Amino acid sequence: MPKIRSDIVKVYKDVHIWVGIVSGLMLFIAFYAGAITMFEKPLERWATPPSALAPPPPVSRAPELVRAVLTEHPRAAKNYSVVIATTPDAPARVIWRERGERPRQFTEFGASFAPDGTLQVEQLRKAPVAQLVDTLHQMVGLPFPDAVARPIMGIVALLYAVALVSGVIILLPTLAKDFFALRIGKNIKRLWLDVHNALGFVSLPFHLVMALTCVVFAFHDPFYDLQGKVVYPDGIQWGEEEHAPPPRPGTPLLPADELLRRVQTQLPGFEIQSFTFQQGEDRVEGRVTGLDVRHGTRARTYASTHLDPYTGEVDPHDLPGHMERWDGAVNAFFMLHFGSYGGNPVRWLYLLLGLGGALVFYTGNLLWIESRRRKQRDAGLPEQKRSTRILGALTVGVSLGSVAGISATLAATKWLPAQVDNVAAWHEGIYYAVFVLAVAWAFARGSARGAYELLWLAALATALVPLGSLAGLWGVAGTWNHGGSGIAVDLTAVAVVPVLLWAAARTRRRALGGHRDSVWST
Questions:
Q1: Residue 312 contacts residue 258 (beta carbons within 8 Å)
Q2: Is pLDDT at 477 greater than 70 in this prediction?
Q3: What are φ and ψ of residue 455, in 5° steps?
Q4: When comparing pLDDT for 107 and 249, which is higher?
Q5: Beta bridge partners of 278
Q6: Is the pLDDT of residue 238 over 60?
Q7: Stretch 464-477: mean pLDDT
Q8: DSSP category for residue 314
């Protein structure tokens, strides 16, 4: 390998440092929250209050239930779904949405048959906390509207890509010597550098995928607008679109159980979740939604495609495994970001890579602070630079504030629905209240004391997560415990608490007995 000139390495080192400083704290939130969203569905199930609906009728009785719903709620005919894969906490066989007073406001309803055979309708209360965590991931923790936060996220992703490339160039001259090194000793800066380099280099392909896909997600519309002006100045010529002929008047839709049989024949291995029916101009249009675990998907937990509800014929070109080359390449782009392939083993791998990515950004800030530490001389303890003290407090407050904030809002999940109306607003308020207070605490107490004190706070908030489930198990009013797969959330929280307490103990030990000239010393 040709030797890289030292002056070039220095330039890239400066680029890497400053780009990392600017984007690192927001990326910490994005990666930490993104790691949690790898198990969004189990989290959503754990957080969703149990339904009061009667158990779902068999799929064979779905047409009867649909007729009853459309008779009493004719607006549901515009768009409704027959759910095939119901769950104990979401047993509605038929669901639909009705538009609210504000734009993009919808209320979702579910229906079943009561024990006496009458129609039973319930407003569905999908837990908002999982969506909040996903939004924090998408918007890098910024409490701004999508139109403001998404471009900022795209700029952060571009900086992130620059930091990755410059980091590799910095590491290349000493790669063979330093890659497998983990020098544990009194030189804390060297230890953090080894951890930072190892995590960053081993997970480099993962980080490159995340950076590039985030740029595309953020600037999706401008890319298409530019493509339309440069590549297709006269507009894309689609040709004549083929439409299925309208059915004869009075032609009935196939019943759900027959649709299920026909789709399973056409799509072996595709686990069907639901059928959706939408009223068109002269016919009812249909879609089938499900998941084939053998193929990755553009969405995190499902794929869908067009279905003729009169014949049961499926158009599979939108489904992974049936796409043309270009569509398959676009689908691969999405699935690599979401980790929607390979099932739970890949989800666990992405969770670990996400947490490792958060640690990369955290250690990057620690390295910057340590490299600018004014060391103790004979004259006594030096006064650290204000920039060093500010970044130390920000690193502690933002990173640990996001950890504690997510744990706190999760801990409130089992208590809020029985106490408040706007559960989503309360979840958001709890997260940002804890986050802001944590940042203020870090500045007030200093990065050394603030670090281990906020780690204690994060441990306490995480320990409270399974408390709501225990309350539900003990029959406390307003709480619930689904058991089953939901217990994984509680067990994960229990496992995380000792890790946070261990980190707090190590941080406190360093604050009391480490280098006295460090911002991490009390």
A1: yes
A2: yes
A3: -65, -40
A4: 107
A5: 79, 285
A6: no
A7: 88
A8: B
DSSP per residue, 191-254: HHHHHHHHHHHHTHHHHHHHHHHHHHHHTHHHHHHHHHHHT-TT-----PPP-PPPPPTTPPPP
Structure token digits, residue 211: 């950076």
The C-alpha atoms of residue 484 and residue 463 are separated, in whole angstroms, by 20
User: Tokens 């804890």 correspond to what residue?
Assistant: 434
Q: Sign (positive/negative) of CA torsion 340, 343, 346, 348?
A: positive
Q: Which two tokens stand for residue 42?
A: 């189990």
Hey, what amino acid is at 411?
A
Strand partners of residue 106: 99
**Vertex 85 angle, CA 120 and 294, to 5°:** 165
Cα dist from 419 to 107, 399, 415, 464, whole Å: 20, 30, 7, 18
Q: Which two tokens stand for residue 391?
A: 């970044």
Say what the pLDDT of residue 472 is: 87
- For residue 29, what are its two tokens? 């939130």
Listed residue (504, 506, 418) closest to 459, CA to CA: 504
344: left (phi over 0), alpha (psi -120 to 50) or beta: alpha
| DSSP summary character for residue 299 | S
The model's pLDDT over 40-97, given as tens digits with 9 standing for 90+, comes to: 888 988 998 888 899 999 999 999 999 999 999 999 999 999 999 998 777 899 999 8
- Are 170 and 13 a contacting pair, CB within 8 Å? yes
DSSP state of 124: -
- The reported pLDDT for the residue numbered 191 is 67
Q: What is the mean pLDDT of residues 7-31?
A: 75
Helix, coil or strand: residue 204: helix
Amino acid, single-letter form, for residue 445:
R
Q: What is the per-residue pLDDT across 161-180, written as a single tens digit (0 to 9) for each? A: 888 777 777 666 665 555 55
Instruction: Measure the CA angle with vertex 477, ends 129 and 113; round to 5°.
Output: 80
Helix (H) or strand (E) holding 290: strand 284-291
Burial class (CB in 10 A: 0-12, 13-18, 19+), 16: buried
Rounded distance, CA 76 to CA 96, Å?
Answer: 6
Give the mean model confidence (pLDDT) for residues 471-479. Answer: 85
Question: Which of 499, 516, 515, 404 has the alpha carbon at shortest distance from 450?
Answer: 404
Residue type, 37: T
Name the amino acid, one letter, at 499: V
Terminal Cα distance for the chain, rounded: 46
pLDDT at 3 > cutoff 70? no
* 419 vs 20 pLDDT, higher one: 419
